[in-house]
Every structure is written in structure tokens, then in C-alpha cells.
Amino acid sequence: MVNGNVSKKCKGVKRAPAKESKPKKDKVLKEIYNRFDTYDHTIHAVAGEVEITTQKIGKALGLSSTDLNKEDHNIYKFFQGKTQAALSMMIFNTLVDTEDNKKLFKRAFLLYVQKCFLLPTSAPNVTPRALPMLFDLENTRNRNWALHVHNFLLEEVAKAKTNHTKSVSGCCYAMLIIYFHETHFGKNSRDPLAQPPWIQY
């Protein structure tokens, strides 16, 4: 084929199907996002209605769902405006030889995980919403990470729909995991394979 024209010799030869521009999972994720109602926190799909709750996000991602701790303004100011690249360099270059360096490493890592997965955005800098989770390292595991992810996701989906943007920030994969879990196992399954964290399967 030259310049889009098929020669006579090639007549009857089947053309290979064009490759999809986007992976199938991205199309499913977009459909789930479009059918997610931020008013009642529910995905209204043909397969059924799936409510997205803080508890379900916790089970889907294996996150804690207890109350948040108070902010530490000094830590906030230090990490404010950090980029993903800066956090990456901080993680790899910090020697964990002292207690202070250990805390610096942990906070940089927590912020990096939020930037890349839990609170992803298209902006190069981390969202200020991620910073309060760095304050009390002793209680990191006991924080309400699920609520943290849930609130950010609701705000970003609502913002994207209002502004009619093609992309949305936030952990949309949490919705995808919950949707597939409930449409496959049901809402109150006792199947051993259906136990949290649902991301494991």
C-alpha cells in the first residue's frame, strides 16, 4: 500500500485490524468514571449500581479508615510544592543513618506514593491535600487513608465533570477495583477470595 492506495495485486488481501489507541482497561475506567455520580457516590452501570464508600476504598486498597491527626505546619512548609522528581531524588539520596533522616525518608516516600497512586494529578507538584498525612509518623498506619483518598476522588471527579475535562485526577483505580469486585462477587460475599484488600486479586 502506497500513499493510502491498494494496488491491484493486493486486491482481496485482508487488512490487519487497526490497533486500539487506548488499552481496553482505560476504556472501562473511563466508562466507570462517566457513570459515577458524585451526589450519591454511586456508579450507575448496566451491570448494576455500585456505591463507592470510604470503607470500600479502604478494603479495596488495604488502607486504614480511622480519624486523621492534626497538621504540623513546619513539615507542611518544607514539603509544600515538591515535585515528583524532587521526591524521587530525596528518597534515593537520603541516608537513613539518623532518626531525623529516617523520618525525612518516610515522609518523602509517603508523599511519593500519594503523588503517583493515591492522589495522582496531572500537575508536576504534589497536591497540598497530601501533606497532612506526613505529620504524625507514629500513627501513619492508623490514619483514615481511605477517607483521604475518597474525599480527593469525589472532588476531582466533580471538578472534571463541571469543567468537561477529558482526564480526571484522583485514584480512579479504586473505583475500578470496587466495581469489578461487586459485579463479580456481590456486595456481601463471604467467598475467601473476596476478602480485602481487593487489590490483591
Notes on the structure:
The chain is mostly helical and 201 residues long. The chain folds into 2 domains: 36-67 and 151-201, no CATH class; 69-143. It is 44% helix and 5% strand. The chain is built from 7 helices and 3 strands, in the order αβββαααααα. The protein has helices spanning 24-34, 54-61, 73-79, 84-93, 99-118, 145-163, 172-185; strands at residues 36-37, 42-45, 48-51. It has a 3-stranded antiparallel beta sheet with strand order 1-2-3. Strand 1 (36-37) and strand 2 form a beta hairpin. 25% of the residues are buried. Residues 1-24 are annotated as: Disordered.
Number of separate domains: 2
* Helical coverage, percent range: 40-55%
Topology as H/E string?
HEEEHHHHHH
Quick one: overall form?
Answer: globular
Distance between the termini: 45 Å
Radius of gyration (CA) equals: 22 Å
Number of helices: 7
Q: What composes the largest sheet?
A: 3 strands, antiparallel
Widest sheet: strand ordering: 1-2-3
Question: Which consecutive residue ranges, at least 5 long each, have pLDDT under 50?
Answer: 1-16
Which percent band covers the strand fraction? under 5%
Structural class category: mainly alpha
If you average the pLDDT, what whole number results? 81
The number of strands is 3
Region (Disordered): 1-24
